[in-house]
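Hi, here's the filled form for the chain we discussed.

Project: internal
Contact: R.S.
Residues: 79
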Amino acid sequence: MITAFAVAAVALGAFLASQARGAHPMMPLELFRSRNVAVSIAVGYAFVIDYYGLPFIMSLYLQQVRGSRPSAPEWRSCR
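And the returned structure, exactly as it came back:
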């Protein structure tokens, strides 16, 4: 797991370095100097992580806290 994160960090660094030196980058890195752009991208990323993580967290809650089976459709009884 740690190796995968290390490889991803190295790949991200290599990608950013190539984009910074390229003549026609996919997205100009100068955009991230603007605080509004950087904050809006970070907030959008957080929303995406929350949106796709919610079903996983809810299934853990239903199984471990409420004691339901993994195949039981108890989404309607979450009160």
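Let me know if anything looks off before we file it.
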